[in-house]
Structures are given as structure tokens and as C-alpha cells.
Amino acid sequence: MTSNHEAAPAPVVLELRNAVKSFGAVVAVSDGTIELREGEIHALIGENGAGKSTMVKILAGVHRPDVATFQVAGEDASFRNVGDSKAAGISVIYQEPTLFPDLTVAENIFIGRQPVNRLRLIDRRRMRRDAAALFAELGVDLDPHRIADGLSIADQQLIEIAKAISMDARVLVMDEPTAALSGAEVDRLFTVARRLRDQGVGILFISHRFEEIFALTDRITVMRDGAYVSTHQTAETTEAEVVREMVGRSVDQLFPKEPAPIGEPVLEVTGLTRRGIFSDINLVVRSGEIVGLAGLVGAGRTEVARAVFGIDRYDDGSVTLNGTPIPPHDPQASIDAGIAFVPEDRRKQGLVMDLSVARNATLAVRRELARMGLISASHEREVAEEWTDRLQVKTSSQSAPVSTLSGGNQQKVVLAKWLATEPSLLIIDEPTRGIDVGTKSEVHRLISDLAGRGIAILMISSELPEVLGMADRVVVMREGRVSEVIDRSDAVPEAVMRAATAAREEVPA
Ligand SMILES: Nc1ncnc2c1ncn2[C@@H]1O[C@H](COP(=O)(O)OP(=O)(O)OP(=O)(O)O)[C@@H](O)[C@H]1O
Ligand SMILES: [Mg+2]
User: Fold this and answer.
1) How many CA atoms, within 13 angstroms, populate the side-chain half-sphere of residue 72?
2) Which of 151, 241, 400, 417 is deepest in the core (most CB within 10 A)?
3) Is pLDDT above 50 for 505?
4) Mean pLDDT within 160-168
């Protein structure tokens, strides 16, 4: 048990004060401060581009601060590289770890420091035994023998954590670890995090999800525009208070859809089936309508969206747009017909990292611009600016490479790119994942605007309040099938959850 709240505060394990880090003319962190104690979980929160990941990279030895006071376990620290940070007992778990796919789980944990036997040969038995002991200590069920290839992101993160523990890490930093996890995987990660906290590890945790922050952490530090704002005991503050500090104003977190006239069917999906993945999916989305596709992670929602757009093939069924059949497995034909698809994994699937913000934001409308003879650089910037302004993209200039933007701001550029096409059907997968609280309602407002202009919208979301606030109808999927279609007026959380989770009825023998 921890006794953070009763006893004298635990010793400070890490202290980074008044850090400054610039990239050319861009000041990513202007006055960053974080203090981490032994045996606490400490949230670092702030809007997209506030400087959180830059702080993490300073702690990780990836970036050297221009200026800072930095101590680890009471000693002055100055890291020249990642190795220095590791040696000081700091381990960083990234959102998507990169294990060696061909090595076993145990080999990945002990790579570069494998135990050897008396003959100076790698002692595989001991390596596996040690790995198994680490997993037992963490309370997770993972097989040290298996090859890393094909492991879920959640399992890979746990392996990174096991590796950190085996290197006696006293500080664990997790930068948006939960963004790509399912609910059950988040629970498992939190159980492990609490266990480590109880063993005295200091954990720095970054997330845009307030329910996670308030469920897990002991203290919260807020950053705004590269600078430290405040630190609170989690139990003594509120979401409204920290949001106000993050954004500099109070925020309405949800922007419910404005009523819009609903017209003719735009998208009609009939009997869509991909063997083993989803089957017999029937869907209609009308002009001006937002249809929410709800369900648990793994229910097949993203897979259906990918098949409708033509990224994946399907075995049976049909897709029509405004009455015209859309050829299967042909994304370009879908785009030409007027479908836009904003994928879930936007960074990988939606951006060309070396190109500028303006070029990325106009990628999908270039043909249209060219046809109107409007492809000049200044016009490109103008079109890009309209959308990047509305989405509050934080960038030093429209010509900066998109790779230099923060994670959340990269996501906003992908949104801008597709919103600029004004399609007849917009398919959007997890529209606000990784997007900060201040911009969330703006994204909702934009989607609502588009519906108001007659665009049909199919929105996949795991956030219940978002689905309930935005959707005219909620189509709930479970295990690859549509389990229920719920009208806006009946769409209460319990109804959606029941449809998403109810066990299939047993057929009596
Ligand atoms: N290598 C770089 N070159 C230029 N600018 C950079 C670089 N890395 C970060 N920045 C800028 O520094 C600022 C802070 O970025 P950072 O990634 O730390 O934000 P963040 O708080 O992690 O945001 P998010 O919630 O979106 O992940 C941003 O404006 C970003 O564009
Ligand atoms: Mg970040």
C-alpha cells in the first residue's frame, strides 16, 4: 500500500527545472519544470504542442536542453545520449515500442546483456527463467519463448516495462501509452503501473484522457505553451480546474451536433462480408446525417470502414454512393466518387513526413486546385491556412516539415487535409484521439458543420460521450456483426454498452 497522503512526502527522484529547448527559431519548451517523487504516478498534461514530449525527450537523453537545472536522485545530471539516461535509471516507454520482431520475448528483454554460463555461452534457460520471473513480478501472463513478431502493442509495452525493471529503473516515463490500447489492455497496464509505484518506482504519465489521469495518478503537473503552470495533488483538484489551466480559459468539452435536415441515402452498404472478420453488414448514411459506429475494440468497425473505402477487399455484398456502385478494393475510385476516409492511425497512413504542413493539408485537394489553375504556392498556403487555423494547428510556419509538429498537431493536419475536400461521404475513425481538450469541441463543431452542408458522415468512436453527442443514429457492432441500431433519442450509455457487450444468447439444447 502507498501512504502518499499521510506520511512525509517520499524523496524526490527526479527534478528538471526551468528547462529551455529550442529548435532553430521554434521554442518547444521555454520554462519546463517537473518534479517526480519515489512511489508516485505523476501526470504531465497540456494541449497539443505544449511541450510534453519534448520534456520526455530531455529526460530520455534524446534532446539536450539549452538551459536547465537537472537532478536525478539528488545528483546533478547532464545526459549526452540515451545511454546516459538509462544508466541513471530512467526508462521511457513510447506509444509504439519497437521490439526486434525475429527475437523471442526473453531475448528482447535481455538484448545486449544476456546472461552467460561458465563456458561464456548465452544461458538461454536462465534468460527465460528471469523473464518469466519478471512477468510474474508484474503479474502479467506472457510467454518468454515466443517470437516478438505479431505481439499486440499492449504486450510490447509490457515487455518494455519488464526490460526497464530488469535494468533497475527507478523512473518510468510513458508518453501517451494508452492511445492505441483497448479498455482491458488499459486496465492491465494500470495494474502494472500501480504495482511498480508501490515498489517505489516514480512514474511520469502522459495522456489526453482525463478519466485515466484521475483514476491513476497521485499528482498532476500542467504545462501551457512550453512553460510550467502548476502542480496539484490529483485528489485535491478537478478536471475543470486543470483544463482551465491547460487551455487558459474554460472549455465546453462537448459540442453536440446541431440539427440538420436529413436527406436521401448517400452511402448504402448491403450484406458486406469479409470471411472471419465481419459479416452481413447493412448500413445506410443519409445526407446531413451522422451515423456513429460504436462497439468494443476488435468488434470490426475499422475493418468495415476500410472495406467500404476500398483499402481492404471483401468477399460478399455491395457498396453504393448516391445510388452508384463503388468498385471494391479501389481507394482512388472511392475518392473520385466523393468518399473521404480519415484513418485511425493518422500519423502512419495520412501524412508525408518530409513535406510541409501546407502541402500535406492540401494533398487531397491538389487535383481540384490544379483544375482551377490555382496551384501556386501562395494559394496552397491560403487553402491550408483556412483549415489549419480552424483546427488550431500549432506550427512555426505553413512551410515547416510536418515531422516537426507535435503528435496531436500532426493528427490535426490529416483532419484538415480531408475536411478540405468537402466530400459527399466522410468516414472518420476516432476523430479526436490524441487531440487535446481545447480543440476537441472544435473538431465536433466542424463535423457538425459538414453535416449541416449535406455531407453524410460515418463516425467510428470508442468514446461514448462523443458518439452520444454527435450521432443521429448509433450502429453498434459486436464480434463482426451489427448487433443493434439505436436512434439518437434512445441512445443512452447503457443501451449502447449492452449492445456492444451482451454475450450471444445460448441456444438451448
Ligand atoms: N524537432 C523539432 N523541430 C522543430 N519543432 C519541434 C521539434 N520537436 C517539437 N517541436 C515543436 O515543439 C512544440 C512542442 O512539441 P511537443 O511534441 O513537445 O508537444 P506535446 O505537448 O507532446 O504535444 P502532443 O499532445 O500533440 O503530443 C511543438 O510546437 C512542436 O512543433
Ligand atoms: Mg506528444
Assistant:
1) 20
2) 417
3) no
4) 92
